[in-house]
């Protein structure tokens, strides 16, 4: 119990003093996870909508693959991204391994199936007659897709929150492709693991508290946007 209290006190002190190292770690966490969520939204929303609104051979198999990807272990993603970015790998010439960009790539791979899976489910759950009604009003295909996205915005926003939560809290892929380099690729989760390994439980708890506060703040903002115009 004393360790927990010390960790909470340490977290408050770090936040109140605007500790430069901790602030840098926290901002990097938000940056890489925010970019990964944005990229996964762009890919997952567009591809998921396309899959949901079209019929083609093998669609059920593809949806099953996407649903499987929603539970993809981060360490597996980290392994394959590391192989791709390794010096002798297919993308080794880019020299991205152990950089923040590598973490963004790995986290994008983790979050994209989550956003895509939620998008497919949300779009397929809309009434089939809704598409016909929209087209009957003279809407173009682009307008049709946009209106369907607006109708499914509540579950889609939930998918964004799930994607963000999945990447900002993961640790395996970030360590494997980022290397946990101080002042460069160290994020809140990897820093917490490192401090725990050193036996600095008060610091580890402090970093965990800061991570939880960041997660709550971002998800509160997304929830506010989601619930701002609830359908009546």
Question: Mean pLDDT, as a whole number?
Answer: 88
CATH topology: MetI-like fold
- Shape descriptor: globular
Low-confidence stretches: none
CATH class: Mainly Alpha
Total helices: the number is: 11
The CATH superfamily name is: MetI-like
Characterize the biggest β-sheet. none
Structural class determined from secondary elements: mainly alpha
What is the number of strand segments? 0
Which value, in Å, is the CA radius of gyration?
Answer: 20 Å
Fraction of helical residues = over 70%
Report strand %.
Answer: under 5%
What's the domain count?
1
CATH architecture: Orthogonal Bundle
Distance between the termini: 47 Å
Order of H and E elements: HHHHHHHHHHH
What do you see in this structure?
With 232 residues, the protein is mostly helical. The chain is built from 11 helices and no strands. Helix 2 runs parallel beside helix 5 and helix 5 packs antiparallel against helix 8. The model has no long low-confidence stretch (mean pLDDT 88).
């Amino acid at each position: 119990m004393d360790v927990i209290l010390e960790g909470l006190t340490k977290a408050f002190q770090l936040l109140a003093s605007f500790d430069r190292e901790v602030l840098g770690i926290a901002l990097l966490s938000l940056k890489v996870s925010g970019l990964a969520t944005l990229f996964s939204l762009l890919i997952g929303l567009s591809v998921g909508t396309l899959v949901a609104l079209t019929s083609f051979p093998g669609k059920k198999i593809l949806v099953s693959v996407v649903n499987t990807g929603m539970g993809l272990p981060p360490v597996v993603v980290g392994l394959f991204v590391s192989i791709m970015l390794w010096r002798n790998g297919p993308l080794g010439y880019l020299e991205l391994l152990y950089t923040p960009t590598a973490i963004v790539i790995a986290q994008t791979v983790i979050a994209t199936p989550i956003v895509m899976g939620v998008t497919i489910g949300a779009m397929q759950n809309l009434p089939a007659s809704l598409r016909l009604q929209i087209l009957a009003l003279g809407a173009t295909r682009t307008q049709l897709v946009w209106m369907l996205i607006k109708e499914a915005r509540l579950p889609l926003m939930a998918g964004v929150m799930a994607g963000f939560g999945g990447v900002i809290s993961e640790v395996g892929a970030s360590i494997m492709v980022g290397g946990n380099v101080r002042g460069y690729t160290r994020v809140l989760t990897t820093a917490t693991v490192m401090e725990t390994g050193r036996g600095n439980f008060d610091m580890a708890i402090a970093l965990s508290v800061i991570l939880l506060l960041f997660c709550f703040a971002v998800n509160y903002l997304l929830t506010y946007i989601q619930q701002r115009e609830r359908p009546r």
